[in-house]
Write a structure and sequence with these properties.
Chemotaxis Receptor Methyltransferase Cher, domain 1; alpha/beta; 2 domains; single chain; 18% strand; Rossmann fold
């Protein structure tokens, strides 16, 4: 490492409340990549500072060097988890990218409902469910197409890397202002408003379809059985290409033949390398003739 490089690495990134050098940034970027697969280029240095400065205040540290020592140590496991949560963007809403729910309703659910009525299991996975809007949207879509879904072997797995945001999702209580994103035809008896508190939740018929689990897509998946549908949207944009391809391939190993994978609007799957075929806008079907 040259003297110029050394000087740069020890130079503060933003001039703020806490000392935060380029060396600190690279150490944090390496931890985040190793734990969650998220790539943090130099352009994200200010973002890292602004999000993690809140953690330093909360635990009473004065520098990012001290923070790095904490999260690298044996006693830093819980804080490492908090750091990953702070770096994860939880931007979502009910029925985000509505074309996916249209495709699910028109092209996928008819055969899954028929299978469920024959006594077969149906499994759907919301693999980065954030605060829960996606799995609840899936459950509403299923119940709109099959009101007696709860009487059949149909389940939605909702997972996320952040245990705190999962608690919010499992609670399933949202401001009344979010109702506008839920189609009026799907509200009825499925949504339970509390006008006095200006919030709403969901009926048991919705909630009972969903199981919430903490899961890191880069680690072991404690999953048995295969999925008919997987939603993994606006997650891979944070990973490098190698990690993306590896996770797409793992999804393929956990799907039934002809299962459907929905991904984010800015994401793509290399169908020349992976056993998927594009069947609709950012919707892929697992090929039945894979090697």
């Amino acid at each position: 490492m040259t003297a110029t490089t050394t000087q740069r690495e020890s130079r503060p990134v933003p001039d703020g409340e806490f000392v935060f050098t380029w060396s600190d940034f690279r150490q944090i970027a390496a931890i985040v990549h190793g734990e969650a697969g998220i790539v943090l280029p130099d352009s994200k240095a200010n973002l890292v500072y602004s999000r993690l400065a809140k953690r330093l205040r909360a635990i009473g540290l004065r520098s990012f060097r001290d923070y790095c020592e904490l999260v690298e140590g044996e006693e830093g496991i819980s804080e490492r988890q908090a750091m990953i949560a702070a770096m994860t963007t939880n931007v979502t809403r009910f029925f985000r990218e509505p074309h996916h729910f249209d495709h699910l309703t028109q092209s996928v659910l008819p055969r899954l409902i028929a299978a469920a009525r024959r006594g077969q299991r149906v499994r759907i996975w919301s693999s980065a469910c954030s605060s829960g809007e996606e799995p609840y949207s899936i459950a509403l879509t299923v119940l709109n197409a099959m009101p007696d879904a709860a009487e059949h072997d149909i389940l939605i797995l909702a997972s996320d890397i952040d245990p705190d945001i999962l608690e919010t999702a499992a609670e399933g209580t949202y401001p009344v202002s979010r109702l506008e994103h839920i189609p009026a035809a799907m509200r009825g008896k499925l949504v339970v408003p509390d006008r006095a508190a200006q919030q709403f939740t969901f009926a048991d018929s919705v909630r009972n379809l969903i199981r919430f689990r903490n899961l890191n897509l880069l680690r072991e998946w404690p999953i048995r059985g295969s999925f008919d549908v997987i939603f993994c949207r606006n997650v891979m944009i944070y990973f490098d290409q190698e990690t993306q391809d590896r996770i797409w391939a793992r999804f393929a190993d956990h799907m039934v033949t002809d299962g459907v994978l929905y991904i984010g609007h800015s994401e793509r799957i290399a169908t020349d390398k992976l056993p998927f075929s594009l069947v609709a806008q950012t919707a892929y079907r697992l090929n039945g003739d894979r090697a």
